[in-house]
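Re: the multi-chain job from yesterday

Posting the exact lines I submitted so nobody has to dig through the queue logs.
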Amino acid sequence: MFPRDSFHLITKDGLPLLPLVPTWTVCIVKSVDEPLYQRIADDLRRRIARGDLPVGAALPSESQLCEQWAASRGPVRQALSALRAEGLIGGGRGRPPVVRTSRVPQPFETLLSFSRWAHSLGRTPGQRTLEIARRPARQEVADALAIDEGDPVVDLVRLRLLDGRPTMIERTTFVESVGRLLFDVAFDPDSSSIYAYLAERGVDLSVARHVFDAVAADPTDASLLEVPEGAPLLRERRRAGSASGEPYEYSDDRYRPDVVTFTIENAEQAHPSVARAWRPTPADNNQTHPK
Amino acid sequence: MFPRDSFHLITKDGLPLLPLVPTWTVCIVKSVDEPLYQRIADDLRRRIARGDLPVGAALPSESQLCEQWAASRGPVRQALSALRAEGLIGGGRGRPPVVRTSRVPQPFETLLSFSRWAHSLGRTPGQRTLEIARRPARQEVADALAIDEGDPVVDLVRLRLLDGRPTMIERTTFVESVGRLLFDVAFDPDSSSIYAYLAERGVDLSVARHVFDAVAADPTDASLLEVPEGAPLLRERRRAGSASGEPYEYSDDRYRPDVVTFTIENAEQAHPSVARAWRPTPADNNQTHPK
DNA sequence: TGGGAGCACTTGTCATGACAAGTAGCCTCG
DNA sequence: CGAGGCTACTTGTCATGACAAGTGCTCCCA
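And the result, structure tokens for all chains:
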């Protein structure tokens, strides 16, 4: 299915081999089959993330990049424009592009999958499945999934843990055609990531809409999340579906606000980026208050 | 200061005059001095927003756009790529671009300014200034503004109303150089928008970071927002500053979650868009539950 | 009638060349 | 010594041409 990758050598600066490079070490990168402008962009991203190009530093000029990659201005400008759209670089007419931030934007999946997010943080996700059932859709769920009230759906309720601590209650409803897959013997809701599992089965979740508000913990929430009844919880209601807009799942997730926050970064020029953030407990960040 | 705009006629379809157009009405658009690819993008955006190109419809092919605008593929592709980045259109190799949604992304300011947001919703914002004071910075604020604890700052506490109903408590702290402007006789905190006022004075707020969580209403919050003590509130902590990253303001805003929510729309391909959403009260949307 | 080859058309990628517009540094002149 | 102009260099915009890769359709043949 995947094209066989071919490889080539590049220097430790991420540049193709050129006579003027004095010393170099070897690393291997995916090469052909990926368009040139993407290889250029990936390389610049990597150099920014690694700190070779610190914040405030000027990138090589377009003509220099053209020489280094033996490319014309087209692909080089395409790469720079991609970085600009991600907010990584600034600059403008007459002055060379400048590194604005080294933060790499979180990919789409990170906001969707709790497991994937936890792993990207270097923490260990856990989960306890409380209920999985096939039942008729309630009104609110039917509206969100664009089906009729009473149509069969699959409900899944899970308590999600972070490093063993209760963090979130997830009440997800899948349309029947997708939820059916969760009853497969191959699926173990307590060990694997649902989204990874569904992706393997050809379910493409590619658009999502998240609505945030706050609710008070009801008795069930309170005992599972180990907070007092009535404590404020951060609620995310999520509807996700295919690229064509067909909804596949609706979820009501309630977070302990002392463990998880959501962050939006916003600039006049660049596109906004969103991220789920983990908040260290007071015991953890004792004496480590940021300067 | 501004270049004198020149104008030209285009048909009701937004196309330049061509002999093959049978009927047309006149409208005036800004023309020269704006690059071609932006004029093309603006025109397509307008046609999508007006419904001339409904969701699901295919856009003209690149070669057609080239003919219509007497342009080469460069600017046309630049325009399409801009729309694609905004999530307005989809499509790919071999198939013509397709309108994905007609929703125009909210500009940067809408998430920053309560007044601006309310107006864009067609609702009337209100505000009651509870406190404005110059005092030494607390620890948390000093950290956020990158100044030393005890440095002078300007605190502003306002109750914000939507259609006369209490909606949000805003506790904003400005660095002294910016906050000083709020004591000017020309500024009336109860009538004008702070951000519009500051922008006039040359304060450029162009990057912001918003962190969302939930808190319980303390006695002050409760009485001002007219909710029970301990009720869950949606909290947004915001840090905003100049393009170079210098922070100007830090704010702790607490919303009634039954009035305001925040929404993130997220897709695998396009950049995320964020928006503040107004939630009609149960009395308002009685019998108008969405199908 | 069904399936596959072929074809027309689409978008994706890249090269080359040209000019406009903005920046920063140098240098001259008052 | 300061102000202004000049120049080299940068990025922004656009034209033209070419080929690769994917889609959808027709048409032919088994």
